[in-house]
Specification:
The chain has one domain (about 5-70). Helix 1 (about 5-15) runs antiparallel to helix 2. The protein is mainly alpha-helical and about 70 residues long. The protein contains four helices and no strands.
Length: about 70
Amino acid sequence: MQETEIKNLMAWRKKGPMGKLHNICIWITRNPQRQDKFQERVLQSKLLSTGPSVPIIGSITRWGGDYDSLV
């Protein structure tokens, strides 16, 4: 992991629970095996009958990005 990525993760970590959620979403989406495992768990739990089966990462350029990552 590059130094700039580590600094970015540490900056998000300071934001509390939302920052932690952001870092978890980043961690899952950076690896195809993690994405597959996440999708498998979502389908097994049947928590989401509709909607995305991959984590949505909030964005500072979209006002509702953090909301989208929670819903």
